[in-house]
Amino acid sequence: MSDIPSAKGFDSTLSLLRNPYGFIPDTCRALDTDLFATRILLQKTICMTGAAAAEVFYSEDKLVREGSMPGRIQKTLLGEGGVQGLDGEAHRHRKQMFMSLMGTERIAALQGISLHMLDNYAPDWAAADKIVLYGELREILTRAVCAWAGVPLPEAEAKTRTAQLTALFQDAGAVGLKHWRARLSRHSLERWAERIIGQVRDGSLQPQKENALHVIATWSDLNGELLTPKVAAVELLNVLRPTVAVSVFIVQAVHALHQYPHWVQKLKDDESRLEPFVQEVRRLYPFFPAVAARVKSAFEWRGYRFPEGCRVLLDLYGTNTDPRSWDAPQEFRPERFRDRAKNPYDFIPQGGGDHHLDHRCPGEWIAISQMKAFCGYFVNSIDYDVPDQDLELDTKELPPLPKTRFVMSDVRLKN
Ligand code: HEM
Fold first, then answer.
1. Residue 4 is assigned to a structural domain of this protein
2. How far is the CA of 239 from the centre of ligand 1 (A)?
3. Distances in Å between the alpha carbon of 171 and those of 12, 70, 120, 175, 178?
4. How far apart are alpha carbons 290 and 292 in whole angstroms?
C-alpha cells in the first residue's frame, strides 16, 4: 500500500479559499493523481476528483456524513439536525420526505406559480430604466416557493425573508460581518419556520396536503414521532433556501445567453434545446465547489489507505469539467447533452449517486425546470438590453456571480 500523494505545505485552507474551484483539480493534475492528502482548517483531509472518485465517495459502506460538516456551515447554510448530516436508514427515511415533494405535477405547479410571478414583475421592469436581475429573481422565487410550499408570506415581510434566505447561501462561506449576517438570518428564519410549523400542528394554519409545509409538519421520523419543531424548521428551510438559490443558476443562464447570443435564436426556434442548454450551464458555471464526508471505517482504494474518521472532500466542479469525461470541457457546448448516456458520477453539480439512497440533491428537477422556464421567458416573452458592465464572474465569491448582479435595461414586453 502506498501513501496518498500530499499537497505542498502544511495546511491548504488559504489555497482553497483563494481558488475554490481550481484548487482540487489543479493540485490533482500537478501531482498526476485523482486524490491527495492535505490539511483543511488544520484537519487531515483527503481531496478527490473525477467520476471514479465520486463513485467511491457515494459508497455508504465507506463514507458517512455525520460530523463531516464544519460548524460554521451548519450554523449558517444548513442548520443542525437536517437530512444532510444523517446516514443509513435514518437518512433514507428522511430523504423520502423530500422526494415525496418532487412529483412531476408538484414541480410543474412551482413552475406555473413562478411564471405567473414573472408576469407580474415584468411590467415594472418595462417601466424602469434598468433592473438588477439577481435581486428581482430572488424576490420572485421567495414569493413563489412560499406560495408553493403553503408558507404564509405577508407582503410586508417579503423583502426581509428574501434577504435572509439569500444570506444563508451567499454569506455562509464568508468571514467577518457577512458570516454573522448569515448566522442572524438563520436564527430569525428558524424561529419563523418553527412558529409556522407550530400553527400547522395546532390546526390554526391548514396548508394543502401536498404542500411542503404540511408534509414536513406531519412527517414522522423512524421512531414514529413528529420531527422536533427545530428540526422541522431546518427541513422547511432546506426547501425554501435552495429554491431561492436557483436564482444564481438563472442569472448564470442569462449570462450564457449573453455570452453565446446565437443560442437565443436556437432556443426560440426549438424549445427542446432548452434542456441541453440549461444542463450545460449547470455543468460549466461554478456553484458549490465540493462536498464533504468522513471515512466510516478504514478502507483501501487503488492501493491507498483511507484512515477511519478522516475527512474527504469530493470536487464537484472539477468532476464536471474533467477532460477524461468531457471533450473540450471548458467550451460551452449544450449539444453534448443531446444524446449523452446518463452517468450518476460524472455530472454532479448537485451531488452524485442516487437521489433516494444517497445525498444527491432532491431539488435537481426543480432547478432544471425553473431554469428552463425562466430562459424560455427571457427569449420568448421579453426583449431587453444588457448595458455595458463588468460581467466577469467573481469566483472568490461563493456562488460566483457578476459583481453587477446582471443589470438589464430597456425591458420590452413582447405581447
Ligand atoms: C443537497 C446543490 C437546489 C434541496 C445538495 C447538495 C448539493 C446541492 C451540492 C449536496 C449533495 C451531497 O451532499 O452529496 C444544489 C444546487 C441547487 C440546489 C446547486 C440549485 C440552486 C435544491 C433545491 C432543493 C434542494 C431546489 C429543494 C427544493 C436539497 C436537500 C439536500 C441537497 C434537502 C440534502 C440531500 C441529502 O442530504 O440527502 N444540493 N441544490 N436543493 N439539496 Fe440541493
1. no
2. 9
3. 21, 15, 29, 8, 5
4. 7
Amino acid residing at 172: A
Total of domains in the chain: 1
For 292-326, write each residue's pLDDT tens digit: 999 999 999 999 999 999 999 999 999 999 999 99
249 lines ligand 1 (CB under 6 A): yes
The residue nearest atom 15 of ligand 1, judged by CA position, is 350
Q: Is position 1 within any domain?
A: no
Positive or negative: CA dihedral 84, 85, 91, 97: negative
Q: How far apart are CA 164 and CA 189, in angstroms?
A: 7
227: cell is 420531527
- Which DSSP category does 351 fall into? B
Q: How many CA atoms lie within 13 A of 188 on its CB side?
A: 16
Nearest to 211 by CA among 136, 83, 113, 140: 113
Q: What is the ipTM of this complex?
A: 0.99
CB 400 less than 6 A from any atom of ligand 1 = no
Interval 134-169: pLDDT, tens: 999 999 999 999 999 999 999 999 999 999 999 999
For the chain, how many residues are written? 415
CATH assignment of the domain containing 393: 1.10.630.10
Look at ligand 1, atom 16, and give the residue with the nearest C-alpha.
Answer: 350
